[in-house]
Amino acid sequence: MDQILLQILNGLDKGSAYALIALGLTLIFGTLGVVNFAHGALFMIGAFCAVTLQKILSLSTITIDPTKTDFLGNPAKIKTPYVEAWFGPEMGAAIIDWSVPLAILFSIPIMILIGFIMERGLIKHFYSRPHADQILVTFGLAIVLQEIIKQNFGANPIPTPAPDVFRGSFDFGMLLGFDPNAIIYPYWRIIYFVFSMIVISGVFAFLRFTTFGMVVRAGMADRETVGLLGINIDKRFTIMFGIAAAVAGMAGVMYAPINSPNYHMGMDFLVLSFVVVVVGGMGSLPGAVLAGFLLGILESFASMNEIKQFLPGIDQIIIYLTAIVILLVRPRGLMGKRGVMEE
């Protein structure tokens, strides 16, 4: 039982990332009708926003301390981060330590701007083109963004630690009545799951309870009718593209301490997240979230040693096998609607 609970927790962790990326993919497809294969790159850029802010906050001034010497006997050079010089040692150290959560605020305007530039500069020209053309151009854009990151940050993963207070692990076993150390789970993974639920709930609440969101949902259902009412639905859809980019960016920021950012992490998540979207049903936001957590949990169970002994490599293909089975039974996905991508 403890192993089952641990794998469920691991699945919720993976499912959170899948659901957040798939949510953004579905938002873009549902509003603009674009199959955006560059969405994984937005997740990657978000992770590197955390790396960038950490580097900025770590910028230091060098002073000479004549009272101390280095191993050669020269006066010691003391590096003092600018934030510690400006805000004091304790406050400055705290700001650097909390660079990842602070990077959420840092990433939002950057990701929205990138989203606007992508949509207005390139993707708007492919609205009326076949989905195959959209996939090709956005996949090419993803490769370009990946190479830009590789050129500027290098090919090696960059460790981006969580705040000190969240670097330990929580004993779930003691909470549920198991033996001590039976179910140990990192604090930051719990934080990531809670964060993902807050973001997902926020997106659904925005679409359901705000006038802007209601107009967007109406436009997703019948774009022409909304346009005839005098509403500039294209402008609202462009804003939704920016919001989807921000969601992917925030997901990447918070995932940075879990998986050190590297230039190919966007591609790693994109293919899986696109499978999640298809399984959930193209254009279905609840379906994307449901499929994200479902496939995350299945992948986690498939990675257990007991299962891999009987089915070697099953953890690498379980998501695709599940997708095949679901699409054979329900060709539109779990919560897909009639007519979506059926032309």
TrEMBL record:
Q: A GO BP term, please?
A: amino acid transport
On the tree of life, the source organism's domain of life is Bacteria
A molecular function (GO) held by this record is: transmembrane transporter activity
User: May I have one GO cellular component term?
Assistant: plasma membrane
- Alphabetical list of Pfam families matching this protein: BPD_transp_2 (PF02653)
Q: Cellular location of this protein?
A: Cell membrane
The record's annotation in PANTHER family points to: ABC TRANSPORTER ATP-BINDING PROTEIN, BRANCHED-CHAIN AMINO ACID TRANSPORT SYSTEM PERMEASE PROTEIN LIVH
Put simply, this protein is called: Branched-chain amino acid ABC transporter permease
